[in-house]
Amino acid sequence: MRGNPKFRQLPGVDELLCDERIAVLHDRLAREFIVTLVRNRLADIRNLVSTGGTSPSFEEIVDAIVTEAHDATNVSLQPVINATGVILHTNLGRSPLSAEALQAAELASRGYCTLEFDLARGRRDSRQTHVERMLCLLTGAEAALVVNNNASAVLLALSALARRKEVIVSRGQAVEIGGGFRIPDVMRESRARMVEIGTTNRSYIADYEQAINPRTAAVLRVHASNFRISGFTHLVSLEEMVELSRQHDIMVLDDIGSGCLIDTTEFGLDPEPRPQDSISAGADLIFFSGDKLLGGPQAGIIVGRSDLINKLARHPLARAMRIDKASIAALSVTLIHYLKGEPLQKIPVLRLISAPLEEIERRADRWAKFLGEPARVIAGHSVVGGGSLPGGIIPTRVVAVRPAGRVGIDKLARGLRQHEPAVVARVEKDALVLDPRSVFPEQDDALLKAVRESLGRQPL
Ligand SMILES: *Cc1c(COP(=O)(O)O)cnc(C)c1O
């Protein structure tokens, strides 16, 4: 290798480190990491040259190292103004936290806290104590357990309760939620054997009954969070499942997806399954997310029978899936909003969903007036999204921007995404669409400034 004459033309590590543009990288990167970048770059070039490629010039090598150093030290997670109208947008971080929840998370993280410590007795305690009583009071459950997210909650329960046993699922509910969460795969990982019954569109209680045998551990209901089957359909109710399972001494496990505690029909939406309804129907364990319609931090919440919750808490996987202190703190304050009867005032996603159309229209009018010629207010639909309420659309007023001439819609969208703060909007066939419903009113001015600048107008 060393004998290859082409390698002799490559700059040395020290030569590159002395280059002025690389030397100033010390501002953002410690020397040892600059050396690593330089060495990696030279190794890549040697590979390239030995397979017949030509070496880049000295300047190009320096450029590449400088770019990598900037990329490596860039804080890429940044805030976004969500003008898409999708309220629970998984790619944009699902539910924003209330000011109080955020403050609790900060306090818990800033210094030490009573995460697993009982101040009165001066001894170790469980982190679950901070939320368990609240969850029981809100849902009517005997016990509760909180883990990292809902996918892990379901995996934990199946692993702890149904390993090497059978779990019955309707074919219409052996679904994929997105992001790789597929019920059949989760079953396989837990070593539970999935027994599918019925057909995609119809299942009856008799289908469940026929599938029960001495190896059956549970029936699992999964909420079809992100799609709707309509037409010739039949689904077995939770009450029927509970009645059957009691006759055969098996469990009813209920993955309701979004942990919605309020009645969504008040906002003209479809009913969303609520944990308290599943508890009163008699389900043994119920699973839901903390950061969907509940409006809290990422979490997987399990409520139900205390003997089962105890088994889950003692399972080794529970430790691997445990929730962190900032999330526990934010979740407890989010739950307090419900307990105080103030969820619609305090919880951001519920504030957005329940914002009256007149208020949205007023803001849309102001936006359009400010933006002038290419902007117009038209009727549209906001989407709840995020794996809840598949038919969940809410009437809204959007501002459609049809940029004239040189600034195309895509170019405008790109300009908004690269703006600081970034704005993400909906690109439709003939317009860029901005929905005030998913934008917090205090962000209006920043959004308008971004659109104006991206349209190529003078900044204000
Ligand atoms: C969203 C969803 C999940 C996954 O929840 P995460 O909190 O994202 O892990 C599981 N089941 C159902 C029915 C869902 O809607």
Describe this protein's structure:
The chain is of the alpha/beta class and 460 residues long. It folds into three domains: 5-73, no CATH class; 80-89 and 350-454, Aspartate Aminotransferase, domain 1, CATH 3.90.1150; 99-346, Type I PLP-dependent aspartate aminotransferase-like (Major domain) (Aspartate Aminotransferase, domain 2, 3-Layer(aba) Sandwich), CATH 3.40.640.10. The chain is built from 20 helices and 17 strands. It has helices spanning 5-8, 13-18, 20-23, 31-50, 58-72, 99-110, 129-139, 150-162, 183-190, 205-211, 238-248, 275-281, 306-314, 316-320, 325-339, 343-346, 348-354, 357-371, 409-417, 444-454; strands spanning 80-82, 117-118, 123-124, 143-147, 166-170, 176-178, 181-182, 193-197, 216-222, 251-258, 285-289, 300-304, 375-383, 393-401, 422-424, 426-427, 432-434. It has a seven-stranded mixed beta sheet, sandwiched between helices. Strands 13-14-17-16 form a four-stranded antiparallel beta sheet. It has a two-stranded parallel sheet with strand order 1-15. A hairpin with a 4-residue loop joins strand 16 (426-427) and strand 17. The model has no long low-confidence stretch (mean pLDDT 93). Pyridoxal-5'-phosphate (PLP) binds at residues 149-151, 177, 181, 222-223, 225, 255, 257-258, 289, 300, 387.
Small-molecule components bound: pyridoxal-5'-phosphate
Per CATH, the architecture of the largest domain is: 3-Layer(aba) Sandwich
Total of domains: 3
Per DSSP, what share of the residues sits in E-state strands of 2 or more residues? Answer: 15-25%
User: Considering the protein shown, what is the CATH homologous superfamily of the largest domain?
Assistant: Type I PLP-dependent aspartate aminotransferase-like (Major domain)
- Major beta sheet, specifics? 7 strands, mixed
- What is the helix fraction of residues, given as a range? 40-55%
Termini Cα gap: 60 Å
Mean pLDDT: 93
Q: In order across it, which strands form the biggest sheet?
A: 4-12-11-10-9-5-8
Quick one: overall form?
globular
Rg, rounded, reads 27 Å
